[in-house]
Amino acid sequence: LAGTVPEEKRCTVERADASLTYSLFLQRFAFSQPVILRGVTDNSAFRALCTREKLLAAFGARPVRLSTANTYSYRKVDVPFQEYVEHLLKPQDPARLGSDTLYFFGDNNFTEWGPLFQQYVPPPFRIPGTSPAYSFGIAGSGSGVPFHWHGPGFSEVIFGRKRWFLYPPDQTPTFHPNETTLTWLQRTYPALPLAKRPLECTLRPGEVLYFPDRWWHATLNLDTSVFISTFLG
């Protein structure tokens, strides 16, 4: 479902297509800067399994673990997947704090979700010495996670549009850890000088963002979105 969050046409993250070689990925991006990849995977079969109807039929009665949408997400809530989709999957309330906003992303039961993940085609690149782990999520318009950092990874949009904001490790962004990304965008972002603004871009279905180790990043779903990340640990 399309949301009411406006899309910023400006994109300051470099893009690459299927002509990008693994050696060039390692040389230019793996350890130094994010990149948006287009045409490196074909997940049309996976996308067909991720419609509302297909997911409810396969996982409706199974529990999913929701996290609070703040930088230090300690509270977890388990609900049936059908309850999440039918009652909690809605646009972000701008007045709600991150600690009061529940977000489905990351705490996947790999025994239950494994058959779905087996249909996903991950990006073809890896960081030497790491192994991949999937993290699947569904979220409403205006939702997202505020700034945080961890190891490197890829994130692909399956349905919807997802806006990303990124800072390198040595540039700590200005944000409140219990403020949602939507509130940060409305209150803090407009006052940032151009030199202090993050790298940013909006991803569409089929596009994959790579972010290096320890890069700060925040996300904002412009629509009801389905997405999957490949963390390299």
Spatially, the strands of the biggest sheet line up as: 1-2-10-7-12-6-5-3-4
- Give helix and strand order, one letter per element, not per position: EHEHHEEHEHEEEHEEEE
Give the CATH level 1 class. Answer: Mainly Beta
CATH architecture: Sandwich
Largest sheet: 9 strands, mixed
What is the CATH fold-level name?
Jelly Rolls
| Low-pLDDT segments, ≥5 res | none
Query: Averaged pLDDT, please?
Result: 94
Q: Helix content range of the residues, please?
A: 10-25%
> Measured on Cα atoms, how large is the radius of gyration?
17 Å
Rounded to the nearest angstrom, the distance between the terminal CA atoms is: 33 Å
Which structural class should the secondary elements be placed in? alpha+beta
Number of helices: 6
| CATH superfamily (homologous) name | Cupin
Task: Say how many strands there are.
Answer: 12
- How much of the sequence lies in strands comes to 25-35%
Q: Count structural domains.
A: 1
Shape category? globular
Protein name: JMJD8 protein
Pfam families: Cupin_8
Organism: Eurystomus gularis
GO molecular function: cis-regulatory region sequence-specific DNA binding
